[in-house]
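User: Can you help me understand a structure? I only have the sequence.
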Amino acid sequence: MSELLPAPIADVTPDVGLNQTWKELIAGSVGGIAQVMVGQPFDIVKVRIQTAPVGTYASPLECATRLLKNEGPLGFYKGTLTPLLGIGACVSIQFGALEWAKRMFSEHAGGRPLTMTELFAAGAFAGIANTVVASPVEHIRIRLQTQPAGAPLYAGPLDCARKIYASNGLAGIFKGNGVTIWREGLGYGSYFLAYEWLVERHMRTHNLRRDEVSPVWAMTYGATAGYALWFSCYPFDVIKSKLQADGLTPATRQYAGAVDAFRKVWARDGLAGFTRGLGPTLVRSPFANGATFVAFEMAMRAMS
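Assistant: Let's start by predicting it. Here is the structure, written out as tokens:
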């Protein structure tokens, strides 16, 4: 395996480690807020396409045009409060868990740089760690994004969470959690591996420290990492969206679970069924993920 990141200096006191962890969590929150504000309009188009019956929209542009006509410009930010709070927490957990895992691997590396396998594992750990927040946040967001504009079922995220819990308990709140774990593990393993590899290569090529890498390059590498994320896990995202938009009662439910959803999507739509909504996702990705990483890196520098 290629060797990438140098191990951090070992003689760090516990207090400094705690301070560093808090910096990573705060910077992750800043990155998460940037991601939501930049990416939300693209995300709602993706979710509408993923969860609508086949043939509802001829293209992502038609979906966006109809959304603008029927719900106005603010329709693109429908359900934003939930991800604004939740995704900020998710990205905070991701970066905090990533850096913690990298430090753990480095402690056992004997001074050698981390390998690609270790970086992928650190990223996968970060993704899985954040599912405890990501799964309910995305479930509520999808319910809000897909409810009828003229006759909404939920007054807001708290009302949505309250109604789901009242009818289905905690299992209802975490609907689709199993496939979310698969998506987060595969996706964020690829995501952070791609970003760290590109940043490290840039540092070696130009003989720079990490805090000397230009924000333009941080944004570029973050955008590239976003593509690595989605190409590695998009079919899982489609199934997650279908499960989380599915009925909450046996009478209204289309899918018995993730395996049943995979089987039915394949039988009905073939491979194309697992790529629905990919267009707006790939358009969104460089902007949202570039903003995430540059916001994280700039926040870390500001706190150094």
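Now, to help you interpret it: The two ends are 32 Å apart (CA to CA). Confidence is low (pLDDT under 50) at residues 1-16. Let me know which part you'd like to focus on.
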